[in-house]
Design a protein that fits this description.
This protein is mainly beta. It contains 5 helices and 29 strands. It is elongated.
Length: 456
Amino acid sequence: MRRIAWFAFACAPLALTAATRPMLPQGAEAWQDVTPRDGLAGWHRTGGTATFAVEQGELIGRAVAGSPNSWLVSDAEYGDFILEYEAKSPTLNSGVMIRGQSRPDYRNGVVHGYQAEIDPTKRGWSGGIYDEQRRQWLYTLSRNDAARRAFRAGDWNRYRVEAVGNRIRTFVNGVPAADIVDDTDARGFIAFQVHSVSDAEAVAKPEVRFRKVRVVTEGAARQVLPATPLEQQGWLANRLSDAERRAGWRLLWDGSTSSGWRGVKGGGFPANGWSMQDGMLRVQGAGGDIATARDYGDFELSVDFRLTPGANSGIKYFPDSAALAKGETIGPEYQLLDDARHPDAKMGRDGNRTLASLYDLIPARNLSDPDSPGKRINPPGEWNRAVIVARGGHVEHWLNGFKVVEYERGSPAFGALVDQSKFAGRAGFGSAKRGPIVLQEHGDRVDFRSIKIREL
């Protein structure tokens, strides 16, 4: 993957030395040892049938064939806190729930919420933040090579999780791994996971071990570690965190008005087809495409979108200026599509009209995790995140934290793809140096929010 400026943190070690750590009080009044003991008092099991036992001061979770995910859940709930623990897993995927949730009104009480990942596979996303049974990945390690290298499969690894206010940070063996802001859950339980396994995997008797578990709640905000260069991922609807602003992000849509947008077919914002309600920019019906009032060259764009069953839309960039002047948007497109229900998914070539593809040119594939080629898609009715990174001729499409498309505008390979597409014969397709961001109206209902951009 081509590195751009904000990827710099992945190339340099970020471990915090003793000189950079704040002085943390170590007395019993600050830290509580919450390591599960014999009898598991203060904890309870839920979910599947995996076993939990304490041996020589270590909590051992052993996977069982045919069992769904199993959890050892704290009886206590926590709001703002800092959690530290050591974990060892040679092969078994696992994790620790942070502000975990389990409610009868949500999927029959399934454990869900923030999870600090334990990933001993080649992918190596230990320390990433996964939204269990909800939005999936909130912070992958696909852009954080330093943290990927920090985890030692089969050895003890020291985790630190800071959950203070709406910010959650993770560290693995002293290396910053993840940093998010999100206001979905303000408090909840801590839980240790034993992941489900197949019958074949169960033969090896996979297990995960935890020890030296401690938590601090009093004055947690004063004990967070210093800021690091790690990129923060924001999940606040139509809002930016202070860290995002410092990183150059700005909102393209303010969450309530049409300011900064215009109709492609006319000077003003469409009177029909587009609406703004409940913090969502909604397209439904014939209103035509809309475009930003400003043009952009090198940029990173992030858009949260929610499809309805069978919906079709798209995000276009670097459109042809001559066509745009005539009310048409002809340019590269990040396809938005319900692959399971819309017939366009089976058209084109090799799936190049499916969700997150470069429309009619390059099919979306999971490039961040080659061992799992399928895309990570939240179904219609749930939110997904599209990211487009364009710098020079290099362009990337990302879907829910996974890179799915990568290409070079203007290259011979790109030209050959254009010649085989519906855009054949359009001179200079995708070659504009600058242009507006366009949201497509295709007659179907699609919701957008948290539309933000930074120029690179």
